[in-house]
Every structure is written in C-alpha cells, then in structure tokens.
Amino acid sequence: MLPTVRAKSVFWASVLCLSFCLGCATSSLAPSQFTGLSKTFAEESDLPKNTSDELPPKDAARACMAAAEELQNNGHTQQAIPLYEKARNYDPSLKSVSHHLAVLYDAQGDSTRSLAEYNKALESDPKNPNLLSDIGYYYYERENFAEAERFLRKALTIDPNHLKALSNLGLVLGRQGRFGESFELFSKVVGPAAAHSNIGVLMAKQGRYDEAKQAFHQALTMDATLQQPKVFLAYLDSRQPHS
Fold first, then answer.
1. 113-142: string of b/e by CB count within 10 Å (b at 16+)?
2. Distance between CA atoms of 15 and 229, rounded to whole angstroms?
3. pLDDT, tens digit, for every residue of 145-202?
4. pLDDT at site 37
C-alpha cells in the first residue's frame, strides 16, 4: 500500500534535512560567547535593565549583538530581531547586522525584508563569501536558479573551498538536471559515495526513480555503511506494486 500524502511529505522532509544539512544559511555566522540565558531573558527579548543605557554606544551595540546571537543560536528568532535592530541603532557601522537580520527574516517567511537586508549587507560587505553563499541559497529556495548560481559562483571565486557554497551550488545545478556538475561539487564536500547518494535524492525528488535507484546503489557499492541511500531505496521499493 502506498504511503499517505502526509506520510510521504514527512518522509521527504526528514530525509532531505539529513541529506543536505550543508545546504542552508547562517552556519558561518559567529556564535556568541555568552551562555546560559534564562527563559525570562529570552522571552523579554531585551537586555537586562540599566545595562545598555549605561554603556557607551559602541559597547551597548556589542552587548546587544552578543545577546541577539545567543538568542538566535537557541532558536529564539523573534526575540533576536529587535536586539539586532537595537545594536544597529547604537552603532550603524556594524557590518554583520544586516546579514543576521536577512537570515532571521527569511526564517520567519518575510521574503521582502529578508531581501532588503541582504542587499544592505551586500552594499557594505560585497566580497564576503558567507554572505554571497547565503544570498545564493535565498534565491535557490525561491527557485530562481540563475540568480542563485550567480551569487554562489561569486562566493567560490573568492573562496574556492567554501563548503556551503559548493554544497548549495550542487543543489542548484542538480535541481536543473545538471547532475554531472552537481556530482563534482558534492564530491568535494562529502566524497564520491555520499555525492552519488545526494544525486539520487535530487533525482527522486524529480520523479526519476529508476535513475535515483541506480545512484543509491552506486553509493552503497562505494560505501556500504551509508544510511541515507538505504533509507531511500527502502522507500522507493515500497512504492513499487507487488505482484
């Protein structure tokens, strides 16, 4: 019996998260050195009273940034945003604020604000490969593959070994059916066996099930310990009618 639509959706979401953990934004942003924020602090989304107001503007900006990064790292997206905004108010010269805000707005589904912040970040830091990679991924998620490829290749021109950009470009090319190019990029990041598996995922997502199976079998021939192709093969086999 075929899985239900909801079951299939959950399956694809889970395995794609496993497959392409490299294909995402924000990982290059530096984590905060602060730890142990209380629940109340996170919920209030502000600095402790009488802290920022007593500091010089640049110090207050750094304090806001540190708190915002800690909130962001702990998944408190909504609470982090006003602190990043406050940091920028204290010190408009801070380069990384717009990058952070672009990622957070995108996570909230606010595409317009996200793109506006990415453009601000690009104006102040146009040769930052982390930023260029994240912008490329922004366009990838919206299936604007031409723009995605343009920004990702810019990132790789600056840093040819940028793992996020390599992986994200592999996704972009694979979504366009350019599997040979995609495989070469994935191989640089995860090795050829896992690269075959990633190609299989992209093929399966496009309904190219027989080709996907071949890619998964090739992956297992090279590395029998890989779990991802085993999961996918089991799923694809379950979709075949039994005689």
1. bbbebbebbbeeeeebbbbbbbbbbbbbee
2. 10
3. 999 999 999 999 999 999 999 999 999 999 999 999 999 999 999 999 999 999 999 9
4. 32
83 CB-near residues (< 8 Å, 6+ apart): 45, 46, 47, 64, 65, 67, 68, 71
C-alpha–C-alpha distance, residues 107 and 154, integer Å: 24
Question: How far is residue 64's CA from residue 85's CA, in Å, rounded to a whole number?
Answer: 9
CA separation for the pair 163, 156 (Å, rounded): 9
d(CA 210, CA 236): 9
Give the distance from CA 202 to its chain's centroid.
17
At residue 23, the 3 state secondary structure works out as coil
Q: What does the angle CA 109 – CA 111 – CA 112 come to, to the nearest 5 degrees?
A: 135
Q: What is the pLDDT of residues 51-96, one digit of tens each?
A: 545 789 899 999 999 999 999 999 998 999 999 999 999 999 998 9
Beta carbons of 109 and 138 less than 8 angstroms apart: no
Backbone CA torsion sign across 181, 184, 185, 190: positive
Q: What would be the CATH architecture of the domain defined by 45-126?
A: Alpha Horseshoe (1.25)
Domain positions in the chain are: 45-126
Burial annotation 4-28 (CB, 10 A radius, 16+ → b, else e): eeeeeeeeeeebeeebbebbbbbeb
CB atoms within 10 A of CB 76: 20
Could you tell me which of 201, 176, 203 has the C-alpha nearest to residue 190? 201
